[in-house]
Write a structure and sequence with these properties.
This protein is mainly α and 72 residues long. Helix content is 50%, strand content 0%. The termini are far apart.
């Protein structure tokens, strides 16, 4: 059974992160927003959507590995 959540988008919202359980099991919305915000302020940031995807995936993998006492 899918878990569906509805959020109203406000004018001051900067990001919309659509992800599966793989990400949301390892980080919450605030953590994902923090990653997106930090990356968008980086001088190396490009409009390439894969930059954010790679960063979020990497952070989720790091968190999962740490919580299970293993290295990534």
């Amino acid at each position: 059974m899918p878990d569906v959540q509805v959020y109203d988008i406000a004018e001051n919202d900067a990001f919309l992160v659509l992800a599966s359980d793989g990400l949301w099991d390892e980080m919450n919305r605030k953590e994902a927003a923090k990653v997106a915000s930090k990356l968008s302020k980086s001088e190396e940031y490009s409009l390439d959507k894969n930059s954010l995807n790679k960063q979020l995936m990497g952070d989720a993998l790091e968190h999962a590995a740490k919580s299970h006492g293993i290295s990534r």
